[in-house]
Amino acid sequence: MITVLFAAPDLWGEYSDVLPKALSDAGIAAQVVQDAAPETVDYIIYAPSAPLQDFTPFTRTKAVLSLWAGVERIVGNDTLTQPLCRMVDPSLTESMVEWVVGHALRHHLGIDAHIVNPGHVWNPVVPPLARNRPVTVLGLGALGTACAQALAGLNFPVTGWSRTQKSVSGVKCLSGEDGLRQALTGAQIVVTLLPRTPGTENTLNADTLALTARGAVILNPGRGPLIDDAALLDALETGQIGHATLDVFRVEPLPQDHAFWAHRCVTVTPHIAADTRASSASGVIAENIRRAEAGQPLLHRVDRVLGY
Ligand code: NDP
Ligand code: OXD
Description:
Elements: E1 2-6, H1 12-15, H2 18-25, E2 30-33, E3 43-46, E4 63-66, E5 84-85, H3 90-109, H4 112-115, E6 135-138, H5 142-153, E7 158-162, E8 171-175, H6 176-184, E9 189-192, H7 206-209, E10 216-220, H8 229-238, E11 241-246, H9 259-262, E12 266-268, H10 278-293
Parallel strand pairs: 1-2, 1-3, 3-4, 4-5, 6-7, 6-9, 7-8, 9-10, 10-11, 11-12
The chain binds NADPH dihydro-nicotinamide-adenine-dinucleotide phosphate and oxalic acid.
């Protein structure tokens, strides 16, 4: 019998039934507990809300399994010597695709003009076809790749950018510094799905925002620090950027006095682009524990040096 410590008390209600069931379905004899002597714990289930900060006493723990895809709040923890895995979950991916495609289509079709039209103006402006609207997705990981492919499936010409060179069917893939400039040049919609690391901070800044097509739309469901807030506000003022739909921020909840709230060309969504669903995430956790117990390599292991 292995011991799985569920270290995120606020999520216990969602997982208390489904996680033990998923482990049992995977053939693992486990007790899932909210409290245990550290030296008895085999696996830790972690979320940023977890009060647990010192991993030193967990001497027999074989892995820390994050319920979140983004691991920036744990990856730099020096007491963590155990392997860390991030969440890659089909329902998380599905919801991110829905958020990105939904907000891309909102801007592509100019839907707002028809929803808010107090003057009852009959203005038959026909949007271009998607095939004539270049879209760039920064980050071609689990989420970025799925979003890029969904957008390509709607006929948008999609360019994707990542740290290492990728090959994604239907998507023009670029990497490296020059690749970033090429990917952004002329883009009309830019989606940021990079992790927060020192290497991705302010990827969108005054210099790179200036490369996009005039009036481009930014969709950021990645992390707030991927964008230089002040540079974005400047670019919105000049019209270089036409609209920004932002789901994530440097400080969350977004402070009431932040300029994004009141800006007519900014849409704020409250970090809801994609949520980890307990039922599918439990299956992902159970599979990883099954693999570890069988001596197989863990899936979705975080590279502590790269930070994601
Ligand atoms: P992955 O780790 O699968 O993918 C990350 C991608 O970013 C990879 O393509 C990687 O390149 C690329 N990348 C990393 N660093 C750099 C760099 N310095 N330059 C260029 N490219 C870089 O992550 P996911 O797709 O699973 O998730 C992405 C992010 O989405 C998460 O880290 C999280 O911040 C955010 N997120 C937001 C949610 C929300 O609700 N708003 C929900 C879930 C996640 P390479 O392929 O070469 O390694
Ligand atoms: C995540 C998130 O990283 O919800 O999973 O942002």
